[in-house]
Amino acid sequence: MSSMQHAPQQTIEAVVIGASAGGVSALLTLLSDLPASFRLPIVALLHLPDDRDSELADIFQHRLAIAVREAADKEIIAPATLYFAGSGYHLSVEMDRSFSLSCEAPVHYSRPSIDVLMESAADAYGAGLAGILLTGANFDGAAGLAKIRQRGGLTVVQDPGEAQVPTMPEAAIRKRQPNLILTLDGIRRLLLQLDGTSC
């Protein structure tokens, strides 16, 4: 297991989080206690059924001290905000650090796809990106996390032993060893450490 002491001392500018089965409760555990002073933008993608609108922004808005909203096409990523990918569209981060939505084919049977989000964010932020992969039942996110690592970003995987469904974290660990493998509590402490202003 990696520990907090091995966290690289790099300046993180944004955080992307991917999850699937079990992801809502994992994210609530991870983010509910973030202080109002938390400054980093967080972009979260949970696999959702195509045929219904995401209510994640509404659910989390009432439980978090920072701004929460669904990511919109062409929107510039702002600090101190949690963005959720909506259903039915891939969410990408452009080089000017704005969002774009697309209807391209599903990746790993998923649209939105964690790989699409993470790979585009890795290109936009390079070493300034932290990628976090949580519980989930498929392989989406493994390639995206590997791309973040390749571009010098920080990669974190939820400890598969704690994950409600370990398939997704295990796939990411197999593909390319992440910088850190942590419990949700460890990831929450890491977020505060990376933010710097919230300690």
What would you note in describing this structure?
With 199 residues, the protein is an alpha/beta fold. The protein has a single domain (15-195), classed as Rossmann fold (3-Layer(aba) Sandwich), CATH 3.40.50.180. The chain has helices spanning 23-31, 56-61, 114-125, 142-150, 167-175, 184-195, and strands at 14-19, 42-46, 67-70, 81-84, 90-93, 99-102, 129-133, 154-158, 180-182. Helix 3 (114-125) packs parallel to helix 4 (142-150) and helix 4 runs parallel beside helix 5. The two termini are 24 Å apart. 46% of the residues are buried.
Order of helices and strands: EHEHEEEEHEHEHEH
CATH class annotation: Alpha Beta
Number of domains: 1
CA gyration radius, whole angstroms: 15 Å
Which architecture per CATH? 3-Layer(aba) Sandwich
Q: Give the name of the CATH superfamily.
A: Methylesterase CheB, C-terminal domain
Count of runs of 4 or more consecutive helical residues:
6
What oligomeric assembly is this protein in? single chain
Question: Largest sheet at a glance?
Answer: 7 strands, parallel
How many beta-strand runs? 9
Category by helix and strand content = alpha/beta
Helix coverage percent of residues?
A: 25-40%
Mean pLDDT: 93
Q: First CA to last CA: what distance?
A: 24 Å
Entry summary:
With 199 residues, the chain is of the alpha/beta class. It contains six helices and nine strands; from the N terminus they run E-H-E-H-E-E-E-E-H-E-H-E-H-E-H.
